[in-house]
Design goal:
Layout: H1 3-13, E1 18-23, E2 45-52, H2 55-62, H3 68-94, E3 99-100, H4 123-129, E4 134-135, E5 141-142, E6 150-157, H5 177-180, E7 192-197, E8 200-205, H6 210-217, H7 246-257, H8 263-271, H9 280-289, H10 297-300, H11 306-317, E9 321-324, E10 330-333
Antiparallel strand pairs: 1-2, 2-6, 3-6, 4-5, 7-8, 9-10
Helix pairs in contact: 1-3, 2-3, 3-9, 7-8
Length: about 350
């Protein structure tokens, strides 16, 4: 068994649903966050690992029937990825190669502009270069088998591993339900940009400032506007500017963060950049104990079949709105209930 087959067998045993391989050369035309040399100067190859999210909990989550089944599944996907990445690193090192597996989420490069959120290496770009999937309109990777409802990580190594064929077909279908499902208007409906990876040019939306996404995915805001009929799993309502003037959005968010009642928003606006994970255990404990998934709509609605996507969007937009109950806890208010 060659080393590539050993990696695949190990990844499968550890719960990885799809594995792909790419080279540093193939990523040479990709954006700077695809540079494997940032995390391992002598890197030659990368391994992309995918865990698919369970579909039944996603639908219960989108329809506001149950939040925690999906939250726990989503969290476990990253724990599985992290543990598998570490195991593959150990395997490669036993074979005499250097290797590293960056933390699979919530870790960003230092000394970058405010909220740039540039990762040590882009797991999305590595995944595309490894034949895992295609960049969809949302900017998420769409795998032919699973859609965008996936979690990703990468292993970077000095070993020379044969790359897998890249996906040739655009699986996005251009439905743009990801943009329609985004309460923060982070995902643009019309404006687009191009990204080239491995000689393949792909188009996705021109995103707003990252803070738009972080405020909503972090749970500080759950609606597009105060009169919205549906929400994320957050009851937060923050009056923020729509897309267009991102500097104004950041200024307004900072103003709101000065409100002592908006402690979560303040933590997101001012504390996120300073967070650093020194070890895998630091990340694992933070992810398991602190993170509560309230959104991720843009990836969760996107399944391979277009009719499934439409149904997911219908479930979301007819799910009602989470409000703060008299006891301070979240309560789901159906769309036809009185305000």
């Amino acid at each position: 068994m060659n080393i590539k087959d050993e990696i695949i067998a190990l990844a499968r045993r550890m719960g990885i649903d799809k594995i792909g391989f790419t080279t540093r050369e193939r990523l040479s035309d990709a954006p700077p966050s695809a540079d494997l040399g940032y995390v391992l100067p002598e890197a030659r190859s990368a391994v992309s690992l995918l865990v698919a999210l369970e579909k039944a909990p996603i639908r219960d989550y989108l329809s506001k029937k149950d939040q925690m089944a999906h939250v726990l599944d989503h969290k476990q996907s990253y724990i599985t990825l992290g543990e598998a990445g570490r195991a593959i690193v150990d395997l490669l090192k036993r074979k005499g190669y250097d290797a590293v597996s960056p933390i699979p989420n919530i870790e960003y490069r230092r000394n970058e502009p405010y909220m740039a959120m540039l990762p040590p290496v882009s797991h999305r770009y590595v995944a595309v270069a490894s034949g895992i999937g295609w960049v969809g309109w949302s900017g998420n990777v769409i795998a032919p088998e699973y859609g965008a409802a996936i979690s990703l990580t990468s292993v970077i190594t000095t070993a020379e591993l044969e790359p897998d064929p890249m996906v040739e077909e655009d699986y996005c279908k251009n439905c743009r339900l990801c943009a329609a499902s985004c309460p923060s208007q982070f995902v643009s409906v019309k404006e687009s940009v191009e990204v080239t990876i491995g000689g393949h040019t792909q188009t996705h939306n021109k995103k707003g400032c990252n803070l738009r996404c972080v405020i909503t995915c972090g749970g500080a805001n759950g609606v597009r506007g105060s009169d919205s009929k549906w929400s994320t799993w957050s009851y937060g309502v923050i009056d923020l500017p729509g897309p267009g003037d991102e500097e104004a959005f950041i200024r307004k968010a900072k103003e709101h963060a000065e409100d002592p009642q908006k402690r979560l928003l303040r933590a997101i606006v001012y504390d996120l950049e300073s967070r650093s994970f020194q070890t895998w255990q630091d990340f694992k404990e933070f992810w398991e104990k602190t993170v509560l998934v309230t959104c991720a709509n843009c990836m969760l609605v996107c399944w391979p079949d277009l009719e499934d996507r439409k149904e997911n969007y219908r479930l979301l937009t007819h799910s009602g709105r989470v409000v703060r109950g008299e006891d301070g806890k979240a309560v789901v208010k159906a769309p036809d209930e009185d305000s």
